[in-house]
Amino acid sequence: MGKFIHTNISQIEPKHHSHEQYEYTRHDVTDKHEKYQVISPNEGNQTVVAFYTLPPGKSSYPFHYHTTNEEVYYIIAGNGEVETFEGKHPVAAGDVIIFPVGKHGAHKITNTGNEPLVYLDVDTNNTPDIAYYPHSNKVGIRSVGCHDNYRTDNTLAYYDGE
Fold this sequence. Notes:
Layout: E1 15-19, E2 22-28, E3 47-54, E4 65-66, E5 71-77, E6 79-84, E7 87-92, E8 96-99, E9 108-111, E10 117-124, E11 129-133, E12 138-143, E13 146-151
């Protein structure tokens, strides 16, 4: 079973990640190592929660969508935009954005302002999950013991190698 958590962003050790146009500081409210490790509703947290801070001009993750998990962002401070298949949409403090499962939930958030963009990210924690990255033709498999990415343009026939 999951555990009761009561905390504040100031009480959480930050983790900084940076790769070219992607940069963020994450404060994990729930145990990040537990994501995609919960295989029963009777164990672990059914949601994964973290605070994100993006510097100006940076994004947290590439454009993607999930087959199993939903995400909800609550914008705490700053300004940015969310890319979807329908285009780019401005976001600002006080906004709530819900990304459902599937292509309709495809998203990428970018800080377009001059100040840090801070948001709370709440995700369901179902496994297995497949994440699709349409701009780079990748697919990510997320499950117990598997967190791998593959190119979708390198497919094999069902009986290949059998």
